[in-house]
Design a protein that fits this description.
heterodimer, A: 283 residues, mainly alpha, Alpha-Beta Plaits, 2 domains, 3 strands, 70% helix, B: alpha/beta, Rossmann fold, 6-stranded mixed β-sheet, binds adenosine-5'-diphosphate, binds magnesium ion
Protein backbone atom coordinates (compact mmCIF):
# COMPACT_ATOMS: atom_id res chain seq x y z
CA UNK A 1 0.00 0.00 0.00
CA UNK A 2 2.74 2.41 0.98
CA UNK A 3 4.67 1.49 -2.12
CA UNK A 4 1.72 1.98 -4.37
CA UNK A 5 0.64 5.19 -2.68
CA UNK A 6 4.23 6.38 -3.09
CA UNK A 7 4.00 5.62 -6.76
CA UNK A 8 0.71 7.42 -7.03
CA UNK A 9 2.11 10.35 -5.10
CA UNK A 10 5.29 10.58 -7.12
CA UNK A 11 3.44 10.49 -10.39
CA UNK A 12 0.93 12.92 -8.95
CA UNK A 13 3.74 15.17 -7.78
CA UNK A 14 5.38 15.01 -11.18
CA UNK A 15 2.10 15.87 -12.79
CA UNK A 16 1.62 18.72 -10.33
CA UNK A 17 5.10 20.09 -10.91
CA UNK A 18 4.98 19.78 -14.65
CA UNK A 19 1.48 21.15 -14.76
CA UNK A 20 2.52 24.12 -12.66
CA UNK A 21 5.58 24.63 -14.85
CA UNK A 22 3.47 24.40 -17.93
CA UNK A 23 0.94 26.69 -16.30
CA UNK A 24 3.59 29.31 -15.68
CA UNK A 25 4.76 29.03 -19.25
CA UNK A 26 1.23 29.24 -20.44
CA UNK A 27 0.53 32.28 -18.33
CA UNK A 28 3.43 34.00 -20.05
CA UNK A 29 1.70 33.57 -23.34
CA UNK A 30 -0.46 36.56 -23.95
CA UNK A 31 -1.62 38.96 -26.60
CA UNK A 32 0.19 42.18 -27.36
CA UNK A 33 -1.62 44.82 -29.33
CA UNK A 34 0.59 47.53 -30.80
CA UNK A 35 -0.62 50.97 -31.72
CA UNK A 36 1.62 52.27 -34.47
CA UNK A 37 -0.65 55.17 -35.31
CA UNK A 38 0.49 57.97 -32.99
CA UNK A 39 -2.64 59.96 -33.82
CA UNK A 40 -4.68 57.82 -31.49
CA UNK A 41 -4.83 59.40 -28.05
CA UNK A 42 -3.73 57.62 -24.89
CA UNK A 43 -7.25 58.04 -23.45
CA UNK A 44 -8.80 56.33 -26.43
CA UNK A 45 -6.46 53.38 -26.03
CA UNK A 46 -7.21 53.23 -22.32
CA UNK A 47 -10.94 53.22 -23.02
CA UNK A 48 -10.43 50.35 -25.43
CA UNK A 49 -8.29 48.57 -22.83
CA UNK A 50 -11.15 48.89 -20.32
CA UNK A 51 -13.47 47.25 -22.83
CA UNK A 52 -11.00 44.49 -23.58
CA UNK A 53 -10.88 43.79 -19.87
CA UNK A 54 -14.58 42.88 -20.00
CA UNK A 55 -13.98 40.31 -22.72
CA UNK A 56 -14.55 36.72 -21.68
CA UNK A 57 -11.33 34.91 -20.89
CA UNK A 58 -9.28 38.02 -20.23
CA UNK A 59 -7.67 38.17 -16.80
CA UNK A 60 -5.70 41.41 -16.92
CA UNK A 61 -4.98 44.24 -19.27
CA UNK A 62 -1.90 46.41 -19.08
CA UNK A 63 -1.46 49.63 -21.05
CA UNK A 64 2.12 50.45 -21.89
CA UNK A 65 2.56 54.05 -22.94
CA UNK A 66 5.47 55.62 -24.78
CA UNK A 67 7.63 56.30 -21.72
CA UNK A 68 7.08 52.78 -20.35
CA UNK A 69 7.91 51.28 -23.71
CA UNK A 70 11.09 53.33 -23.67
CA UNK A 71 11.98 52.13 -20.19
CA UNK A 72 11.52 48.54 -21.26
CA UNK A 73 13.57 49.16 -24.36
CA UNK A 74 16.39 50.70 -22.32
CA UNK A 75 16.52 47.59 -20.14
CA UNK A 76 16.94 45.23 -23.08
CA UNK A 77 20.36 43.59 -23.18
CA UNK A 78 21.38 45.07 -26.49
CA UNK A 79 24.16 47.32 -27.70
CA UNK A 80 24.05 50.92 -26.46
CA UNK A 81 24.75 52.11 -30.00
CA UNK A 82 21.38 50.89 -31.01
CA UNK A 83 19.75 52.22 -27.86
CA UNK A 84 21.21 55.71 -27.87
CA UNK A 85 19.40 57.28 -30.83
CA UNK A 86 16.13 56.64 -29.10
CA UNK A 87 15.18 58.85 -26.20
CA UNK A 88 12.20 60.78 -24.83
CA UNK A 89 12.25 63.33 -27.60
CA UNK A 90 12.72 60.88 -30.39
CA UNK A 91 10.62 57.91 -29.46
CA UNK A 92 9.32 55.80 -32.35
CA UNK A 93 8.39 52.94 -30.05
CA UNK A 94 4.74 51.99 -30.38
CA UNK A 95 2.40 52.03 -27.44
CA UNK A 96 0.89 48.66 -26.65
CA UNK A 97 -1.75 46.87 -24.63
CA UNK A 98 -0.78 43.56 -23.02
CA UNK A 99 -3.72 41.22 -22.67
CA UNK A 100 -3.39 38.39 -20.19
CA UNK A 101 -5.61 35.46 -21.08
CA UNK A 102 -6.95 32.90 -18.74
CA UNK A 103 -6.33 29.94 -20.98
CA UNK A 104 -3.99 30.00 -23.96
CA UNK A 105 -6.18 27.36 -25.58
CA UNK A 106 -8.80 29.95 -26.39
CA UNK A 107 -6.48 32.77 -27.29
CA UNK A 108 -7.96 32.85 -30.80
CA UNK A 109 -11.45 33.32 -29.42
CA UNK A 110 -10.25 36.19 -27.23
CA UNK A 111 -8.61 37.85 -30.22
CA UNK A 112 -11.82 37.55 -32.20
CA UNK A 113 -13.75 39.06 -29.31
CA UNK A 114 -11.32 41.92 -29.05
CA UNK A 115 -11.66 42.44 -32.79
CA UNK A 116 -15.41 42.70 -32.52
CA UNK A 117 -15.38 45.40 -29.83
CA UNK A 118 -12.78 47.49 -31.63
CA UNK A 119 -15.48 49.60 -33.30
CA UNK A 120 -13.16 52.46 -34.22
CA UNK A 121 -10.63 50.16 -35.89
CA UNK A 122 -7.77 51.36 -33.71
CA UNK A 123 -6.17 47.99 -33.97
CA UNK A 124 -4.65 47.11 -37.28
CA UNK A 125 -4.83 43.45 -38.12
CA UNK A 126 -1.08 42.92 -38.30
CA UNK A 127 -0.56 44.69 -34.96
CA UNK A 128 -1.78 41.82 -32.83
CA UNK A 129 1.32 39.89 -31.90
CA UNK A 130 -0.12 36.63 -30.73
CA UNK A 131 0.16 35.14 -34.20
CA UNK A 132 3.92 35.11 -33.85
CA UNK A 133 3.51 33.12 -30.65
CA UNK A 134 0.94 30.76 -32.01
CA UNK A 135 3.37 27.99 -32.73
CA UNK A 136 4.95 28.31 -29.31
CA UNK A 137 1.54 28.29 -27.71
CA UNK A 138 0.52 25.17 -29.53
CA UNK A 139 3.73 23.43 -28.60
CA UNK A 140 3.36 24.20 -24.90
CA UNK A 141 -0.28 23.21 -24.95
CA UNK A 142 0.46 19.87 -26.52
CA UNK A 143 3.40 19.38 -24.15
CA UNK A 144 1.28 19.99 -21.06
CA UNK A 145 -1.43 17.77 -22.38
CA UNK A 146 1.12 15.07 -23.01
CA UNK A 147 2.55 15.43 -19.52
CA UNK A 148 -0.90 15.25 -17.98
CA UNK A 149 -1.70 12.19 -20.03
CA UNK A 150 1.44 10.46 -18.80
CA UNK A 151 0.58 11.46 -15.24
CA UNK A 152 -2.93 10.05 -15.51
CA UNK A 153 -1.59 6.94 -17.19
CA UNK A 154 0.99 6.35 -14.46
CA UNK A 155 -1.55 6.93 -11.72
CA UNK A 156 -3.99 4.49 -13.29
CA UNK A 157 -1.22 1.95 -13.78
CA UNK A 158 -0.03 2.16 -10.19
CA UNK A 159 -3.62 2.36 -9.01
CA UNK A 160 -4.30 -1.01 -10.58
CA UNK A 161 -1.21 -2.44 -8.88
CA UNK A 162 -2.42 -0.95 -5.61
CA UNK A 163 -5.84 -2.55 -6.03
CA UNK A 164 -4.24 -5.97 -6.41
CA UNK A 165 -2.00 -5.39 -3.40
CA UNK A 166 -4.81 -4.26 -1.15
CA UNK A 167 -7.03 -7.04 -2.44
CA UNK A 168 -4.45 -9.59 -1.39
CA UNK A 169 -3.90 -8.01 2.02
CA UNK A 170 -7.59 -7.81 2.75
CA UNK A 171 -8.19 -11.31 1.48
CA UNK A 172 -5.71 -12.51 4.09
CA UNK A 173 -7.41 -10.64 6.91
CA UNK A 174 -10.82 -11.77 5.74
CA UNK A 175 -9.65 -15.37 5.56
CA UNK A 176 -8.19 -14.98 9.03
CA UNK A 177 -11.52 -13.68 10.24
CA UNK A 178 -13.74 -15.96 8.18
CA UNK A 179 -14.82 -17.77 11.37
CA UNK A 180 -15.99 -14.52 12.83
CA UNK A 181 -17.81 -13.61 9.63
CA UNK A 182 -19.45 -17.02 9.51
CA UNK A 183 -20.60 -16.71 13.13
CA UNK A 184 -21.89 -13.21 12.48
CA UNK A 185 -23.97 -14.49 9.61
CA UNK A 186 -25.26 -17.49 11.51
CA UNK A 187 -26.43 -15.36 14.43
CA UNK A 188 -28.19 -13.04 12.00
CA UNK A 189 -25.97 -9.98 11.73
CA UNK A 190 -27.07 -7.70 8.93
CA UNK A 191 -24.79 -7.55 5.91
CA UNK A 192 -23.97 -3.95 6.72
CA UNK A 193 -22.87 -4.95 10.22
CA UNK A 194 -20.56 -7.61 8.82
CA UNK A 195 -19.11 -5.14 6.35
CA UNK A 196 -18.65 -2.41 8.95
CA UNK A 197 -15.31 -3.52 10.42
CA UNK A 198 -13.88 -4.15 6.98
CA UNK A 199 -14.90 -0.73 5.75
CA UNK A 200 -13.16 0.74 8.78
CA UNK A 201 -10.18 -1.45 8.01
CA UNK A 202 -10.11 -0.19 4.43
CA UNK A 203 -10.09 3.41 5.62
CA UNK A 204 -7.38 2.52 8.12
CA UNK A 205 -5.22 1.16 5.31
CA UNK A 206 -5.70 4.45 3.51
CA UNK A 207 -4.66 6.36 6.63
CA UNK A 208 -1.61 4.20 7.40
CA UNK A 209 -0.60 4.29 3.76
CA UNK A 210 -0.88 8.07 3.74
CA UNK A 211 1.23 8.49 6.86
CA UNK A 212 3.95 6.17 5.58
CA UNK A 213 3.92 7.57 2.08
CA UNK A 214 4.07 11.18 3.19
CA UNK A 215 6.91 10.54 5.62
CA UNK A 216 8.73 8.50 3.00
CA UNK A 217 8.32 11.16 0.32
CA UNK A 218 9.41 13.95 2.66
CA UNK A 219 12.44 11.97 3.74
CA UNK A 220 13.42 11.09 0.18
CA UNK A 221 12.90 14.62 -1.02
CA UNK A 222 14.87 16.02 1.92
CA UNK A 223 17.75 13.62 1.29
CA UNK A 224 17.92 14.09 -2.45
CA UNK A 225 16.90 17.70 -2.95
CA UNK A 226 16.50 19.28 0.46
CA UNK A 227 19.94 20.78 1.15
CA UNK A 228 19.74 23.19 -1.77
CA UNK A 229 21.51 22.70 -5.05
CA UNK A 230 24.98 23.54 -3.67
CA UNK A 231 25.25 20.44 -1.49
CA UNK A 232 24.45 18.08 -4.31
CA UNK A 233 27.66 16.14 -4.71
CA UNK A 234 26.88 14.47 -7.99
CA UNK A 235 26.73 17.82 -9.66
CA UNK A 236 23.58 16.79 -11.40
CA UNK A 237 20.21 17.37 -9.89
CA UNK A 238 16.74 16.92 -11.15
CA UNK A 239 15.81 20.04 -9.25
CA UNK A 240 18.21 22.04 -11.31
CA UNK A 241 16.98 20.43 -14.44
CA UNK A 242 13.42 21.42 -13.72
CA UNK A 243 14.41 24.71 -12.16
CA UNK A 244 12.29 23.86 -9.11
CA UNK A 245 13.20 22.81 -5.60
CA UNK A 246 11.17 19.64 -5.24
CA UNK A 247 11.49 19.57 -1.45
CA UNK A 248 10.08 23.07 -1.12
CA UNK A 249 7.43 22.18 -3.62
CA UNK A 250 6.52 19.10 -1.63
CA UNK A 251 6.34 21.02 1.64
CA UNK A 252 4.13 23.72 0.23
CA UNK A 253 1.79 21.21 -1.36
CA UNK A 254 1.86 18.72 1.50
CA UNK A 255 -1.78 19.05 2.56
CA UNK A 256 -3.07 18.70 -0.96
CA UNK A 257 -0.95 15.61 -1.35
CA UNK A 258 -2.07 14.16 1.99
CA UNK A 259 -5.69 14.76 1.10
CA UNK A 260 -5.34 13.09 -2.28
CA UNK A 261 -3.44 10.15 -0.81
CA UNK A 262 -5.93 9.65 1.99
CA UNK A 263 -8.87 9.88 -0.36
CA UNK A 264 -7.33 7.57 -2.94
CA UNK A 265 -6.07 5.18 -0.26
CA UNK A 266 -9.36 4.87 1.62
CA UNK A 267 -11.52 4.65 -1.47
CA UNK A 268 -9.20 1.93 -2.71
CA UNK A 269 -9.22 0.16 0.65
CA UNK A 270 -12.98 0.33 1.12
CA UNK A 271 -13.86 -0.69 -2.41
CA UNK A 272 -11.45 -3.58 -2.30
CA UNK A 273 -12.73 -4.79 1.09
CA UNK A 274 -16.29 -4.64 -0.15
CA UNK A 275 -15.32 -6.65 -3.21
CA UNK A 276 -13.42 -9.25 -1.22
CA UNK A 277 -16.17 -9.67 1.37
CA UNK A 278 -18.87 -9.99 -1.28
CA UNK A 279 -18.49 -13.69 -1.74
CA UNK A 280 -18.83 -14.27 2.00
CA UNK A 281 -22.14 -12.45 2.04
CA UNK A 282 -23.62 -14.18 -0.98
CA UNK A 283 -26.67 -16.46 -0.73
CA UNK B 1 -42.31 -49.60 2.53
CA UNK B 2 -39.69 -47.35 3.88
CA UNK B 3 -41.89 -44.62 5.14
CA UNK B 4 -43.68 -45.53 8.34
CA UNK B 5 -45.34 -42.61 10.04
CA UNK B 6 -46.70 -43.83 13.32
CA UNK B 7 -48.52 -40.67 14.24
CA UNK B 8 -49.84 -40.59 17.75
CA UNK B 9 -48.29 -43.91 18.74
CA UNK B 10 -45.81 -42.19 21.02
CA UNK B 11 -46.69 -39.72 23.78
CA UNK B 12 -43.90 -37.37 22.67
CA UNK B 13 -45.50 -36.76 19.29
CA UNK B 14 -48.23 -34.15 19.01
CA UNK B 15 -51.80 -35.46 18.65
CA UNK B 16 -52.95 -35.96 15.06
CA UNK B 17 -55.67 -33.30 15.30
CA UNK B 18 -53.00 -30.66 15.77
CA UNK B 19 -50.91 -31.90 12.90
CA UNK B 20 -53.76 -31.91 10.49
CA UNK B 21 -54.94 -28.44 11.39
CA UNK B 22 -51.62 -26.66 11.54
CA UNK B 23 -49.56 -26.24 8.40
CA UNK B 24 -46.03 -27.53 8.94
CA UNK B 25 -43.45 -25.11 10.30
CA UNK B 26 -40.84 -26.47 7.92
CA UNK B 27 -41.77 -27.84 4.52
CA UNK B 28 -39.27 -29.15 1.96
CA UNK B 29 -41.01 -29.77 -1.36
CA UNK B 30 -39.11 -31.93 -3.79
CA UNK B 31 -35.79 -30.31 -2.90
CA UNK B 32 -32.56 -31.23 -4.65
CA UNK B 33 -29.13 -29.80 -4.12
CA UNK B 34 -26.43 -30.23 -6.69
CA UNK B 35 -22.87 -29.22 -5.86
CA UNK B 36 -20.51 -28.74 -8.79
CA UNK B 37 -19.49 -32.40 -8.83
CA UNK B 38 -21.83 -34.00 -6.32
CA UNK B 39 -25.53 -34.50 -5.84
CA UNK B 40 -25.96 -33.78 -2.12
CA UNK B 41 -29.76 -34.00 -1.95
CA UNK B 42 -32.20 -35.69 -4.28
CA UNK B 43 -35.96 -35.04 -4.30
CA UNK B 44 -36.32 -34.51 -0.58
CA UNK B 45 -39.84 -34.06 0.81
CA UNK B 46 -39.89 -33.25 4.48
CA UNK B 47 -42.43 -31.68 6.82
CA UNK B 48 -41.70 -30.71 10.39
CA UNK B 49 -44.37 -29.30 12.68
CA UNK B 50 -43.98 -26.67 15.34
CA UNK B 51 -42.73 -28.06 18.64
CA UNK B 52 -41.35 -31.30 17.22
CA UNK B 53 -38.05 -32.94 18.18
CA UNK B 54 -36.57 -34.49 15.05
CA UNK B 55 -33.48 -36.62 14.71
CA UNK B 56 -31.84 -36.39 11.32
CA UNK B 57 -29.65 -39.43 11.02
CA UNK B 58 -27.44 -40.99 8.42
CA UNK B 59 -23.83 -41.73 7.71
CA UNK B 60 -21.31 -39.07 7.00
CA UNK B 61 -21.98 -37.59 3.57
CA UNK B 62 -25.68 -38.54 3.60
CA UNK B 63 -26.76 -34.90 3.28
CA UNK B 64 -27.65 -33.87 6.85
CA UNK B 65 -25.53 -30.73 6.86
CA UNK B 66 -26.81 -29.83 3.42
CA UNK B 67 -30.40 -29.83 4.73
CA UNK B 68 -29.30 -27.55 7.56
CA UNK B 69 -27.47 -25.20 5.20
CA UNK B 70 -30.53 -24.95 2.98
CA UNK B 71 -32.70 -24.30 6.02
CA UNK B 72 -30.47 -21.46 7.21
CA UNK B 73 -30.19 -20.12 3.66
CA UNK B 74 -26.43 -20.52 3.63
CA UNK B 75 -27.01 -22.47 0.42
CA UNK B 76 -29.75 -22.34 -2.20
CA UNK B 77 -31.57 -25.45 -3.42
CA UNK B 78 -30.93 -26.40 -7.04
CA UNK B 79 -34.51 -27.52 -7.39
CA UNK B 80 -37.66 -27.52 -5.26
CA UNK B 81 -39.04 -25.15 -2.66
CA UNK B 82 -38.48 -24.73 1.04
CA UNK B 83 -41.17 -23.11 3.18
CA UNK B 84 -40.62 -22.01 6.75
CA UNK B 85 -43.69 -20.69 8.56
CA UNK B 86 -45.44 -20.59 5.16
CA UNK B 87 -42.83 -18.41 3.54
CA UNK B 88 -40.73 -19.61 0.68
CA UNK B 89 -37.06 -19.06 1.49
CA UNK B 90 -36.33 -18.15 -2.11
CA UNK B 91 -38.71 -15.20 -1.74
CA UNK B 92 -36.76 -13.67 1.14
CA UNK B 93 -35.10 -10.42 0.17
CA UNK B 94 -31.41 -10.21 1.05
CA UNK B 95 -32.19 -7.68 3.78
CA UNK B 96 -34.66 -10.13 5.35
CA UNK B 97 -32.23 -13.04 5.51
CA UNK B 98 -30.44 -11.83 8.68
CA UNK B 99 -33.82 -11.33 10.38
CA UNK B 100 -34.86 -14.80 9.30
CA UNK B 101 -31.64 -16.30 10.69
CA UNK B 102 -32.35 -14.77 14.09
CA UNK B 103 -35.42 -16.97 14.29
CA UNK B 104 -33.26 -20.06 13.84
CA UNK B 105 -30.53 -21.01 16.30
CA UNK B 106 -27.74 -23.22 14.97
CA UNK B 107 -25.20 -25.30 16.90
CA UNK B 108 -22.23 -27.02 15.28
CA UNK B 109 -19.99 -29.95 16.05
CA UNK B 110 -16.95 -27.66 16.37
CA UNK B 111 -18.82 -25.12 18.53
CA UNK B 112 -17.66 -22.10 16.47
CA UNK B 113 -16.96 -19.96 19.50
CA UNK B 114 -14.65 -16.97 19.18
CA UNK B 115 -11.51 -17.93 21.14
CA UNK B 116 -10.58 -14.38 22.12
CA UNK B 117 -13.97 -13.73 23.74
CA UNK B 118 -15.24 -14.99 27.10
CA UNK B 119 -18.38 -17.08 27.44
CA UNK B 120 -20.38 -13.97 28.24
CA UNK B 121 -18.88 -12.00 25.35
CA UNK B 122 -19.45 -14.82 22.87
CA UNK B 123 -23.15 -14.79 23.70
CA UNK B 124 -23.45 -11.02 23.90
CA UNK B 125 -21.74 -10.84 20.51
CA UNK B 126 -24.75 -12.49 18.85
CA UNK B 127 -26.86 -9.65 20.20
CA UNK B 128 -24.35 -6.89 19.55
CA UNK B 129 -24.24 -7.71 15.85
CA UNK B 130 -27.96 -7.20 15.78
CA UNK B 131 -27.87 -3.81 17.45
CA UNK B 132 -29.64 -4.58 20.73
CA UNK B 133 -29.44 -2.12 23.61
CA UNK B 134 -26.86 -2.80 26.33
CA UNK B 135 -29.60 -3.41 28.84
CA UNK B 136 -31.33 -5.94 26.61
CA UNK B 137 -28.03 -7.64 25.85
CA UNK B 138 -27.27 -8.09 29.55
CA UNK B 139 -30.75 -9.29 30.37
CA UNK B 140 -30.89 -11.87 27.59
CA UNK B 141 -27.31 -13.09 28.04
CA UNK B 142 -27.83 -13.68 31.74
CA UNK B 143 -31.12 -15.46 31.20
CA UNK B 144 -29.75 -17.79 28.58
CA UNK B 145 -26.60 -18.55 30.61
CA UNK B 146 -28.81 -19.59 33.49
CA UNK B 147 -30.77 -21.86 31.19
CA UNK B 148 -27.64 -23.73 30.09
CA UNK B 149 -26.19 -23.59 33.59
CA UNK B 150 -23.02 -21.74 32.67
CA UNK B 151 -23.38 -18.59 34.73
CA UNK B 152 -20.42 -19.55 36.92
CA UNK B 153 -18.17 -19.83 33.86
CA UNK B 154 -19.22 -16.58 32.21
CA UNK B 155 -15.79 -14.96 32.47
CA UNK B 156 -13.84 -17.94 31.20
CA UNK B 157 -12.48 -18.24 27.70
CA UNK B 158 -13.53 -21.18 25.49
CA UNK B 159 -10.15 -22.93 25.85
CA UNK B 160 -10.67 -23.00 29.63
CA UNK B 161 -13.92 -24.95 29.25
CA UNK B 162 -14.67 -28.63 28.81
CA UNK B 163 -16.17 -29.77 25.52
CA UNK B 164 -19.61 -30.04 27.08
CA UNK B 165 -19.35 -26.55 28.52
CA UNK B 166 -18.28 -25.17 25.15
CA UNK B 167 -21.24 -26.77 23.47
CA UNK B 168 -23.55 -25.38 26.17
CA UNK B 169 -22.09 -21.97 25.49
CA UNK B 170 -22.76 -22.45 21.77
CA UNK B 171 -26.32 -23.52 22.54
CA UNK B 172 -26.77 -20.48 24.73
CA UNK B 173 -25.63 -18.30 21.85
CA UNK B 174 -28.04 -20.05 19.51
CA UNK B 175 -30.89 -19.45 21.94
CA UNK B 176 -30.19 -15.83 22.72
CA UNK B 177 -32.53 -14.56 19.99
CA UNK B 178 -35.31 -16.80 21.37
CA UNK B 179 -35.51 -18.71 18.07
CA UNK B 180 -38.51 -20.78 17.05
CA UNK B 181 -36.22 -23.49 15.74
CA UNK B 182 -32.97 -24.84 17.17
CA UNK B 183 -30.81 -26.84 14.79
CA UNK B 184 -27.91 -28.88 16.14
CA UNK B 185 -25.50 -30.35 13.58
CA UNK B 186 -23.68 -33.26 15.26
CA UNK B 187 -23.48 -31.33 18.54
CA UNK B 188 -22.11 -34.35 20.40
CA UNK B 189 -19.61 -35.36 17.72
CA UNK B 190 -16.65 -34.04 19.70
CA UNK B 191 -17.89 -34.98 23.16
CA UNK B 192 -17.44 -37.95 25.46
CA UNK B 193 -20.66 -39.90 26.29
CA UNK B 194 -21.34 -38.13 29.60
CA UNK B 195 -20.98 -34.66 28.11
CA UNK B 196 -22.96 -35.81 25.10
CA UNK B 197 -25.90 -36.84 27.28
CA UNK B 198 -25.75 -33.53 29.08
CA UNK B 199 -26.17 -31.77 25.74
CA UNK B 200 -28.98 -34.07 24.60
CA UNK B 201 -30.74 -33.48 27.90
CA UNK B 202 -30.41 -29.75 27.40
CA UNK B 203 -31.84 -29.99 23.87
CA UNK B 204 -34.69 -32.05 25.29
CA UNK B 205 -35.47 -29.38 27.89
CA UNK B 206 -35.33 -26.68 25.24
CA UNK B 207 -37.83 -28.65 23.18
CA UNK B 208 -40.10 -28.98 26.23
CA UNK B 209 -40.23 -25.21 26.39
CA UNK B 210 -41.79 -25.17 22.94
CA UNK B 211 -38.83 -24.75 20.61
CA UNK B 212 -38.72 -27.01 17.57
CA UNK B 213 -35.45 -28.97 17.68
CA UNK B 214 -33.67 -30.62 14.77
CA UNK B 215 -30.80 -32.85 15.81
CA UNK B 216 -28.47 -34.14 13.11
CA UNK B 217 -26.37 -37.00 14.38
CA UNK B 218 -25.01 -40.41 13.56
CA UNK B 219 -24.82 -41.51 17.16
CA UNK B 220 -27.01 -44.63 17.29
CA UNK B 221 -27.17 -44.87 21.10
CA UNK B 222 -28.52 -41.37 21.48
CA UNK B 223 -31.12 -41.80 18.75
CA UNK B 224 -32.31 -45.10 20.09
CA UNK B 225 -32.65 -43.82 23.61
CA UNK B 226 -34.47 -40.56 23.15
CA UNK B 227 -37.26 -42.17 21.14
CA UNK B 228 -38.19 -39.22 18.98
CA UNK B 229 -39.03 -38.91 15.31
CA UNK B 230 -36.13 -40.30 13.26
CA UNK B 231 -35.50 -39.31 9.67
CA UNK B 232 -32.91 -41.58 8.10
CA UNK B 233 -30.96 -40.32 5.13
CA UNK B 234 -28.82 -42.19 2.68
CA UNK B 235 -26.95 -40.68 -0.26
CA UNK B 236 -29.02 -37.52 -0.32
CA UNK B 237 -32.41 -39.16 0.04
CA UNK B 238 -34.77 -39.82 2.92
CA UNK B 239 -35.08 -43.59 3.27
CA UNK B 240 -37.24 -43.75 6.36
CA UNK B 241 -39.20 -41.45 8.65
CA UNK B 242 -40.43 -42.92 11.92
CA UNK B 243 -41.98 -41.40 15.00
CA UNK B 244 -40.50 -42.60 18.29
CA UNK B 245 -38.15 -44.56 16.21
CA UNK B 246 -34.80 -46.17 16.28
CA UNK B 247 -31.72 -45.68 14.16
CA UNK B 248 -32.03 -48.65 11.81
CA UNK B 249 -29.44 -49.03 9.16
N1 LIG C 1 -19.57 -27.14 -0.65
C1 LIG C 1 -19.62 -28.38 -1.19
N2 LIG C 1 -19.13 -28.59 -2.43
C2 LIG C 1 -19.19 -29.83 -2.99
N3 LIG C 1 -19.69 -30.89 -2.39
C3 LIG C 1 -20.19 -30.77 -1.14
C4 LIG C 1 -20.18 -29.49 -0.47
N4 LIG C 1 -20.73 -29.66 0.75
C5 LIG C 1 -21.07 -30.96 0.84
N5 LIG C 1 -20.74 -31.63 -0.27
C6 LIG C 1 -21.01 -33.06 -0.55
O1 LIG C 1 -22.38 -33.30 -0.40
C7 LIG C 1 -22.61 -34.54 0.25
C8 LIG C 1 -23.46 -34.34 1.48
O2 LIG C 1 -22.69 -33.65 2.46
P1 LIG C 1 -23.24 -33.24 3.89
O3 LIG C 1 -24.60 -32.67 3.74
O4 LIG C 1 -22.23 -32.40 4.55
O5 LIG C 1 -23.32 -34.66 4.60
P2 LIG C 1 -23.45 -34.99 6.15
O6 LIG C 1 -23.62 -33.73 6.89
O7 LIG C 1 -24.62 -35.90 6.23
O8 LIG C 1 -22.21 -35.70 6.52
C9 LIG C 1 -21.24 -35.11 0.59
O9 LIG C 1 -20.93 -36.09 -0.37
C10 LIG C 1 -20.31 -33.94 0.45
O10 LIG C 1 -19.06 -34.37 -0.02
MG1 LIG D 1 -22.37 -32.94 8.37
Amino acid sequence: MTLTLTMISVSLLMTFILRDTAESIRSKIDITIYFRNDAIKDEQIQQLAEKIKQVNGVIAVDFIDKSEALAIFKRLPINDNIKSPIDEKNNPLPRSVLVDTQNPDDIQAVVNNIDSIDSNDYICSECVSYDQNKEKVDKVISATQFVQLIGIGLSVFFGVIAIFNVYNIIKITITARSDEIEIMRVVGASNMFVRGPFIVEGILYGLIGTIFTTSFLLLMAKLSFGGGSTTNSSGFSISNLLGIDIYTYLVTHIWQLVAVQFLAGSVLGVVVSLISIRKFLKS
Amino acid sequence: MNEVLKIGSSPSVKPPVDQVKKPPLIDFQNVSKQYPRKVALKDVDLKISEGEFVCLVGQSGAGKTTIIKLLTKLEKPSRGKIYVANRSLSDLRSGEVPLYRRKIGVVFQDFKLLPQKTVWENIAFALEVCAFSDKEINRRTEKVLELVNLIKRKDNYPNELSGGERQRCAIARALVHSPKILIADEPTGNLDPINAWEIIDLLYRINQRGTTVILATHNKQIVDRIQKRVILMKAGQIVSDQAGGKYVI
